[in-house]
Design brief:
CATH topology of the largest domain: Chondroitinase Ac, Chain A, domain 3
Distance between the termini: 55 Å
Number of helices: 6
Helix content: 40-55%
Radius of gyration: 45 Å
Bound molecules: 2-acetamido-2-deoxy-beta-D-glucopyranose
Strand content: 15-25%
Number of strands: 14
Order of helices and strands: HHEEHEEEEHEEEEEEEEHH
Length: about 325
């Protein structure tokens, strides 16, 4: 019963998790909060440019209401990006062979580090972020004062774009870290890390490392792995059977006590009845004696002894 209930609970957690992914999908679409944040951050990143040199990262300033987020912008020729790639744009490495679509001659790569705002803008119920959410977005560089620019897509032909996360917690024991990629349409893709702190992507988007919130060590009642699944029900069963033993012992003792009470009550009632019977007979005998006394007079003593012994005999050997 307990196992069944925990399985049902687990099912709902999984269900919730999948809803969470869908809510993240909805949230990062254009016009929604994460999409609106990108629009705002593109503006603030572009403001960092004053006579920008190509291939250099310029650090932007965010409004006070978004303290904790950092942005950078880098202007590039798309030919250069394709021929040489970009090494070490903060956590990102772009390999050779990256193409821009739709094609533009120059582009701006906007970098976002959402810091402590990561789970505010990219809620992923059922998962816990081990790193901040990082964004790599591409825009047309033809007008550096423009706002509300559409995003461009990057695509790799050979090696993936890699993200080497520097800040991050290590995953709890027994839980596997997953690379989370959220593309420009807001759909979430989970994949295994390339290495401990490194994820790969074939396009632009938002990236993080996360673990499932329900780790085996935190919730031992959920049979996540065969070991936990094997151990927990056994413990349960043992506790249950010892519980049953207690119930048996207690009810047996209770039953015995009740039985003894009933028996002693019956005995007491029997004794009382017998005593009353005896008393009644004694009274009858006494009245009989008195009757005899009054009627017989002189022959009082022998008559009395005879009538007196009769009820005593009845009392001792009767039912
Ligand atoms: C933060 O402030 C900026 C400018 O002051 C404003 O445009 C933006 O809507 C604000 N963002 C949030 C999330 O409050
Ligand atoms: C993030 O941290 C900054 C201070 O570093 C704070 O002002 C801001 O409110 C925090 N944001 C959230 C969502 O907690
Ligand atoms: C660049 O964009 C700004 C803001 O949208 C606009 O005012 C300006 O005219 C644009 N410049 C060019 C050269 O298109
Ligand atoms: C998810 O990411 C992996 C690794 O980058 C990729 O191979 C896979 O095609 C992606 N899946 C989807 C649905 O985007």
């Amino acid at each position: 019963m307990e196992l069944c209930r925990s399985l049902v609970l687990r099912f709902f957690v999984i269900l919730l998790g999948s809803f969470g992914i869908e809510s993240a999908i909805a949230e990062s679409g254009p016009g929604t909060s994460a999409g609106a944040l990108d629009v705002l951050l593109q503006d603030y990143a572009f403001r960092a440019f004053v006579r920008p040199k190509t291939g250099l990262a310029y650090v932007g300033t965010v409004p006070a209401n978004l303290t904790g987020i950092s942005v950078s912008a880098m202007r590039l020729r798309s030919g250069s990006l394709r021929m040489r790639g970009v090494k070490g744009y903060n956590e990102f490495d772009l390999p050779r062979g990256v193409a821009v679509s739709p094609y533009v001659e120059r582009l701006v790569l906007v970098y976002e580090d959402l810091g402590n705002w990561s789970s505010v803008y990219y809620q992923l119920p059922g998962y816990t972020y081990l790193t901040p959410v990082l964004g790599l977005l591409a825009y047309d560089a033809s007008n550096l004062s423009a706002t509300n620019l559409p995003k461009l897509e990057l695509s790799t032909t050979g090696d993936p774009i890699t993200i080497r996360f520097t800040m991050g917690k290590s995953p709890p024991m027994g839980s596997a870290a997953k690379c989370v990629s959220i593309n420009s349409l807001g759909s979430v893709n989970m994949s295994d890390p390339i290495s401990n702190n490194q994820c790969g992507s074939s396009s632009t988007g938002h990236f993080a490392i996360a673990v499932e919130s329900i780790a085996p060590s935190h919730a031992p009642s959920y049979p996540i792995n065969p070991l936990a699944g094997g151990v927990v029900p056994q413990n349960r069963k043992r506790r249950n059977s010892s519980g049953k033993m207690w119930i048996i012992i207690v009810s047996a003792a209770g039953g015995l006590a009740l039985f003894m009470l009933v028996v002693s009550l019956a005995l007491w009632a029997g004794k009382l009845k017998r005593r009353k019977e005896v008393e009644r007979m004694e009274k009858e005998a006494e009245s009989g004696e008195q009757l005899q006394m009054t009627s017989v007079g002189d022959t009082k003593a022998p008559a009395a002894t005879v009538t007196r012994t009769q009820p005593r005999l009845e009392g001792e050997y009767g039912p």
